[in-house]
Amino acid sequence: MEINNMKSKRICFLIFCLCMIGSLGAFNHDYSQTWVTKMFLSKPDPKGGCQVNMTFEQALEAIRVTDNLSLGIPKIVYLVGWQYNGHDDKYPAFFDANPLLKRSADRTALESLRWLIREARKYHTIVSLHINMTDAYDDSPLWNEYVAKDLISKNADGSLMVIGEYNNRKAYQINYQREWEAGYTQKRIDSLLSLVPELKEAGTIHSDAWIARPSAGHHETQICEAMYQQKAALYWKSKGIDITSEWVMDYMIGYVPYAWHFNGFTQADYLKYPAHVYTGTGLNPDIKTSDHALGFLFGTSCYGEPIWQGADYKGWEKALVKDFMLKVPQYFFLNRLDRDSVSGSGNDRIAWYSDGVSVSLKDSVVRQYDRVLRRKNTVFMPAVWRSDRGMIAYSEAGGEEVADVPFHWGNTSKAKIYRITSDGLVYEKEVTVRKGGLKIKMNQETPYYIVPETGTTKGR
User: Fold this and answer.
1) Are strands 258-261 and 279-282 parallel, antiparallel or unpaired?
2) In the prediction, which pLDDT does 313 show?
3) Is the pLDDT assigned to residue 137 strictly greater than 70?
4) Which residues are bridge partners to 136 per DSSP?
5) Whole-angstrom Cα distance, residue 446 to residue 430?
6) Each residue of 228-237: b (16+ CB within 10 Å) or e?
7) What's the distance, CA 156 to chain centroid?
8) What's the CA gap between 192 and 93, in Å, rounded?
9) What's the mean pLDDT in 234-246?
10) Over 70: is that where the pLDDT of 391 sits?
11) Which of 451, 456, 424, 455 is nearest to 440 (CA)?
12) Which residue, among 377, 360, 372, has the nearest Cα to 326 in the 3D structure?
């Protein structure tokens, strides 16, 4: 009877997979046109307590300010350390919010978390959670159950597989196949969505360190474990949720639309897979073997997480503006184009796109036909996520520049210049457009927004 029941379950899942395969790639969000980032809220301290970086209320204020500084760009923010005592605490459980992050107006921290997710929508921001589908810790409420049911991967000698040490505790590898077959993968997902129903509207979640490893003690290969990752991704999808990951995984193309670190992609991969199929925020600088030049050639986004330092750090706005302005507008612009080819090699490479766009690595220049959109760290880039046809002007060094205006401005003769601030756009002056260009004097590391006379400044 038990064998027949297991066969029945596998047949049902096979039918489920066949139904879902047809919709692979049909994600809830276009991650190539969304600024995806994380906010670090808290982590356990060595004494068994918690170190708070940002409460739920402070996170909303940072999101509000960020929305103004980024001109209302579509954003997804994954909250790191929202649970228990913070980041990497109590996995595989993720069923309660950190009480130290609570608003005084709410009864529980969970209520405050749900409030944040709802309120952030006012600022073009989808807030969701950073979780972990891989790690298990021996102080987790689920630890004894996972050990008793043999849901932890094992070494060849039968010992439990340790994959790292975080917060002074060993992290053990969850066995994806055994967890799935026991129904615990599904239970974890269902419980979290029941706990935070707003996640269904968010339609996205992020799995940290989601890596497949062989379990020699169970005679399971890495390929086998990877297949069960795919099953978990499909289950998330059946619940209306895109799952994203920390690292690029070629076997998850079509299952996962986005990775936090995009180091695993080669130049050939960029040309093969469009950004709307698979994209990522950045290339981890700690991975020295990566071809980091690909970030400029094909566009790289802004991590954000290392910059937000809570309410007491007064320098984060300027630091965020610099990182954002030099990366995200170019990332969005390039992601809308077809990647045609790359000529040259090494530092002499040029990436060629549709619509006459080229990106030259040697001199750090982005062109569209004869118009320069970027030269080194001075940018005049269209804000393609807005409807007012405006362009961003930013210079690390500052000074007077003649900016080439975007082609879609047509024969516009005048434009308005605004300064981008944490409280919104501040009008500066009107300028004349001559022969496809305009003069602008820019203060050092100060962002401006320039709108043609027929545009508006009301945002999206």
Assistant:
1) parallel
2) 65
3) yes
4) 172
5) 18
6) bbbbbbbbbb
7) 36
8) 9
9) 98
10) yes
11) 451
12) 377
User: Would you call the peptide bond into 92 cis, given omega within 30 degrees of 0 as the criterion?
Assistant: yes
Virtual torsion, Cα 275, 59, 126, 280, nearest 10 deg: 10
Please state, in angstroms and rounded to a whole number, the distance separating the CA atoms of residues 396 and 110. Answer: 42
pTM exceeding the 0.90 threshold for the entire prediction: yes
Question: pLDDT tens across 34-91, in order?
Answer: 999 999 999 999 888 899 999 999 999 999 999 999 999 999 999 999 999 999 999 9
Angle at 133 between CA 160 and CA 44, to 5 degrees: 85
Location of structure tokens 């360190």: 209
> 357 vs 36, 123, 201, 350, 369, CA distance in Å?
24, 31, 36, 10, 6
User: Rounded to an integer, what distance in angstroms lies between the CA atom of residue 288 and that of residue 209?
Assistant: 19
Helix (H, G, I), strand (E, B) or coil at 67: helix
Q: What is the pLDDT of residue 209?
A: 96
Are 417 and 428 in contact by the 8 Å Cβ rule? The answer is yes
> What single-letter amino acid sits at 30?
D
CA distance 225 to 205: 21
Interatomic CA distance for residues 309 and 32, integer angstroms = 26
CA distance 120 to 134: 28
Q: Which residues contact 103 (CB under 8 A, 6 or more apart)?
A: 55, 56, 57, 111, 112, 115
CA-to-CA distance for 377 and 265, rounded, in angstroms?
A: 25
Compute the distance between CA of residue 376 and CA of residue 391 in angstroms, rounded to an integer.
17
Distance CA(32)–CA(66), nearest Å, equals 19
Cα dihedral sign, 284-163-42-246? positive
Q: Which residues of 105-117 are buried (b: 16+ CB within 10 A; e: fewer)?
A: eeeebbebbbbbb
Is residue 391 within 8 Å of residue 405, measured between CB atoms? yes
**Amino acid of residue 73:** I
Report yes or no: 135 and 145 within 8 Å, Cβ to Cβ: no
| Residues 364, 375 contacting (CB under 8 angstroms) | yes
What the block records as the tokens of 360 is 């030259």
Q: Which single residue is written with the structure tokens 């066949």?
A: 18
Average pLDDT, the chain: 93
Over its C-alpha atoms, the chain yields an Rg (Å, rounded) of 24
Chain position carrying tokens 């090699």: 345
Q: How far apart are CA 319 and CA 314, in angstroms?
A: 10
C-alpha distances in Å from residue 94, one per residue of 70, 87, 136, 144: 31, 11, 11, 16
The residue among 390, 389, 372, 392 whose CA lies nearest residue 381 is 392
Concatenated DSSP letters for 74-116? -EEEEEES-BTTSTT-STT---SB-GGG--TTSSSHHHHHHHH
